[in-house]
């Protein structure tokens, strides 16, 4: 069975999934802040990459949960009735509700963004944006940002190999590696900036940074409606927050 999410264009996926982030932050308190999960969970479980999506989400979420528990349930003074006590540590009701509120918003944000990352490659998104007539400069900036981590990783490997070939000991324990980080940072950053400049100049000479006619995007009216629904959800959540603050 083909995935519903993968049948949409990358721009529609981005609008729908990224739109869940402001919705959950504007609704603020659970259970309202968990409403976007009614959209994200079915799409993620039927995306064909559910295991990868869950694994990537948990990889980001578990360290955050541990930090959240340490901050709100242990380090903060107890507030409200005692829900749980163990020796000198006491968890108050207000602390637990605050931690749950923060966790729900960040959990929805991470699950939405991770679902988009496992369902859409950077090349697909940039090609779709280019076909819709997006600014070539904007597309180039996005492409450079998406490729920044792989570029830095490759260049760091090259710099380390060059330093090893010159006799510099870049291995050893953690403190020794930290001391040898200084001769690595300079060539890494300067080399990355030089690569970005060379690519920009090459694209400009080839006409890659000039505007081209907008291509016809193959999408149904349903995708337009989905983007409209996403915008309505964000607007509705914003209106709800304004009404709660000033109503």
List the helices and strands and how they pair.
Elements: H1 10-27, H2 37-45, H3 50-75, E1 82-86, E2 89-92, H4 93-119, H5 122-131, H6 136-146, H7 148-165, H8 174-179, H9 182-205, H10 221-246
Helix pairs in contact: 1-4, 1-10, 2-4, 3-4, 5-6, 7-9
Give me some keywords for this one.
flat; 247 residues; two-stranded antiparallel ribbon; mainly alpha
Structure commentary:
The chain is mainly α. The chain is built from ten helices and two strands, in the order αααββααααααα. The chain has helices at 10-27, 37-45, 50-75, 93-119, 122-131, 136-146, 148-165, 174-179, 182-205, 221-246, and strands at residues 82-86, 89-92. A two-stranded antiparallel sheet has the order 1-2. A hairpin with a 2-residue loop joins strand 1 (82-86) and strand 2 (89-92). Helix 2 (37-45) packs across helix 4 (93-119) and helix 7 (148-165) crosses helix 9. The longest helix is centred in the middle third of the chain and has 27 residues, at 93-119. It starts with 9 loop residues before the first helix and ends with a helix.
Helix content: over 70%
N to C succession of SSEs: HHHEEHHHHHHH
Which consecutive residue ranges, at least 5 long each, have pLDDT under 50? none
Secondary structure: number of strands: 2
Radius of gyration: 23 Å
The largest pleated sheet is described as: 2 strands, antiparallel
Provide mean pLDDT, rounded.
Answer: 78
Largest sheet, spatial ordering of strands:
1-2
């Amino acid at each position: 069975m083909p995935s519903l999410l993968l049948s949409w264009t990358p721009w529609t996926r981005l609008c729908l999934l990224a739109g869940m982030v402001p919705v959950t932050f504007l609704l603020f308190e659970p259970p309202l802040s968990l409403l976007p999960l009614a959209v994200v969970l079915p799409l993620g479980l039927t995306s064909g990459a559910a295991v990868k999506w869950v694994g990537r989400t948990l990889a980001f979420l578990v360290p955050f949960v541990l930090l959240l528990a340490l901050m709100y349930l242990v380090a903060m003074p107890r507030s409200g009735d005692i829900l749980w006590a163990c020796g000198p540590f006491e968890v108050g009701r207000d602390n637990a509700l605050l931690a749950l509120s923060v966790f729900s918003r960040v959990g929805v944000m991470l699950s939405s963004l991770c679902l988009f990352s496992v369902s859409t490659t950077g090349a697909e998104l940039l090609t779709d944006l280019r076909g819709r007539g997006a600014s070539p400069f904007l597309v180039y900036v996005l492409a450079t940002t998406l490729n920044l981590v792989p570029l830095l990783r490759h260049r760091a490997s090259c710099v380390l190999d060059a330093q090893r070939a010159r006799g510099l000991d870049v291995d050893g324990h953690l403190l020794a590696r930290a001391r040898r980080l200084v001769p690595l940072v300079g060539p890494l950053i300067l080399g990355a900036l030089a690569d970005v400049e060379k690519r920009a100049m090459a694209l400009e000479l080839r006409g890659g940074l000039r505007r081209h006619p907008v291509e016809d995007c193959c999408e149904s009216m349903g995708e337009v409606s989905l983007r409209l629904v996403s915008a309505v959800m964000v607007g509705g959540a914003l209106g709800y927050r304004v009404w709660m603050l000033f109503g």
